[in-house]
Amino acid sequence: MTLDQLLMLTTVIDLGNVQAASQKLNKTQPAISKGLKQLEIQLQINILDRSEYRLKLTPEGKQIYSHAKRILAEADILQQVTTHLSQGNESEVSIAIDGAFDSAQLTPIFAKIQQKFPHTSLIIRQEYLTGAFNRLINDEVDIAISLKESALIKRQPLDYLYLNVQSLITVANPNILRRHANLTSVKQLKSEYLIMLQDSGSLTKGFEFGVLDGQRKYYVNDFATKKQLIVNDLGWGKLPEYMMQTELDNGNLVIITPEGNENRIDIEYYAIKKKILGPVSTYLWQTLAKSFG
Question: What DSSP assignment string belongs to 105-147?
Answer without folding.
Answer: GGHHHHHHHHHH-TTSEEEEEEE-TTHHHHHHHTTS-SEEEE-
